[in-house]
Specification:
This protein is α+β, with helices and mostly antiparallel strands. It has helices at about 5-10, 30-45, 90-105, 130-135, 140-145, 155-160, 190-195, 235-250, 290-310, 330-340, 355-360, 385-405; strands at about 20-25, 45-50, 55-60, 70-75, 80, 110-115, 180-185, 200-205, 205-215, 220, 255-265, 270-275, 275-285, 310-320, 325, 345-350, 365-370. β2 (about 45-50) and β3 form a beta hairpin. The structure holds glyoxylic acid and manganese (II) ion (2 copies).
């Protein structure tokens, strides 16, 4: 299978030193990888088109191309200092599955389409699944064009410079565009490996939400301002972060998770009292009500810090999404594909989000998970074995063949 050398080549388009991978959307490495990927698709005899935000569609035309298509794909952007399998296995695995079907002489009735989503990761614009949200029509397109990257540059300008022009409302897919969409992905958790199961079939995707807090106190001299007089913005931030952790643990449910992954302290000097802090929280659960109870605890902690520490706090919701339920027919197709290929499987929940979460708003979706070493992901030592990748590709090919008939 060519996928193994292609995964290595793709990992080389990176702004980090090996084995880390950094590929920020519309950055130089991402654009080079994108061009390379399009050439691979053209080489495989697929027709390539791009939309106004850079979502890239590579189509194998079916004998009845007017029918709703069968889709597969994922993303190639990678968070800073991550690994080489997150997203990429679904993109290059989709291509490998299509090449394998072509090699057997298979002729699809429905067109089969490989989709590369733009900006699944929230690194640059603070919101994940940008491309798939626009495909599903769940974002206000004018507001999306005004999304600023970490340097304050709007999406409108960045995508134009990257060569993706046209209005964002053209990105939304028409109703019934996909007959079904299957995303291949590494599990990003430890269950398949622990249970010695070859593949996971995803039945639902957990509901993600994220928030940006700006906390203002009062700066001053770290030696001269006495403790009773202080309004230290970082200490208010620290108490809020701990309160969120407690609330997430207190649900008692293994599926509740909360992370404070961004903490920027201003002015950020050892001998200055922090006057301002930016925090970002990521809170998720398979159960929306339980997740929202943690969000309420975050709001309550902000109120307490306003009163206790005299902090001024602004809380901005970056996203608050519903969970996705995968399509029972697609789940059956994947079960059959596993049986046809002699692979064991278990049904599972995806605690990570994926572009399939948003495609589920407009199409039947399911996902196929392959094990990853020790469940490690979003780290340079992320690893999936060639055997597991090859199982995933064969089962995906079988599922695409079933769905396209
Ligand atoms: C996707 O990368 C996620 O954070 O779930
Ligand atoms: Mn990721
Ligand atoms: Mn991913």
């Amino acid at each position: 299978m060519k996928i193994f050398s292609e995964l290595e080549t793709l990992a080389g388009f990176s702004g980090a030193s090996k084995p880390g991978v950094t590929r920020v959307v519309f950055g130089q490495s991402d654009m080079e990888a994108h061009t390379w990927f399009k050439l691979l698709c053209i080489g495989a005899g697929l027709e390539v088109r791009e939309d106004a935000v850079g979502n890239t569609f590579a189509t194998w035309k079916g004998s009845e191309p007017q029918l709703a298509r069968v889709g597969t794909g994922s993303h190639i952007d990678a968070i800073p200092h991550s690994g080489k399998y997150d997203g990429t296995v679904g993109v290059l695995g989709g291509l490998e599955a299509i090449r394998a079907l072509k090699a057997t002489g298979f002729r699809p009735r429905r067109s089969i389409e490989l989709l590369l989503f733009t900006s699944e990761e929230p690194t640059r614009f603070g919101i994940g699944c940008l491309g798939s949200r626009l495909l599903a029509g769940v974002l206000d397109t004018d507001a999306a064009d005004r999304f600023e990257d970490t340097e304050g540059k709007p999406l409108a300008e960045i995508r134009e410079q990257a060569g993706f022009s046209g209005t964002l409302d053209t990105v939304k897919l028409p109703p019934g565009y996909y007959h079904g969409f299957v995303e291949l992905h590494i599990e990003q958790g430890p269950l398949l490996e622990r249970d010695r199961v070859q593949l996971g079939i995803v039945t639902s995707i957990a509901a993600p939400s994220s928030f940006r807090l700006t906390i203002e106190g009062e700066g001053g001299h770290a030696g001269a301002v006495l403790m009773p007089q202080r309004r230290d913005a970082f200490l208010a931030a620290a108490e809020i972060a701990l309160a969120v952790e407690s609330a997430a643990r207190a649900t008692g449910a293994i599926d509740t998770v909360a992370t404070c992954g961004v903490c920027e302290v201003f002015p950020g000097v050892i001998n200055g009292i922090p006057s301002r802090v930016k925090l970002e929280f990521d809170i998720r659960d398979t159960d929306t009500q339980r997740r929202d109870a943690v969000v309420k605890a975050l709001e309550a902690a902000c109120n307490r810090m306003r009163a206790k520490r005299g902090a001024t706090i602004q809380m901005h919701t970056l996203n608050s999404d519903a969970p996705a339920t995968c399509d029972p027919t697609l789940i059956d197709v994947l079960k059959r594909a596993c049986e046809n290929e002699g692979c064991s499987y278990s049904l599972m929940v995806s605690r990570a989000y994926h572009d399939s979460l948003f495609l589920s708003r407009i199409a039947p979706v399911s996902m196929l998970f392959i094990p990853c070493n020790a469940g490690v992901s979003h780290r340079p030592d992320e690893y999936a074995s060639p055997q597991d990748i090859s199982n995933g590709v064969r089962v995906l090919a079988d599922a695409l063949a079933q769905l396209s008939q």
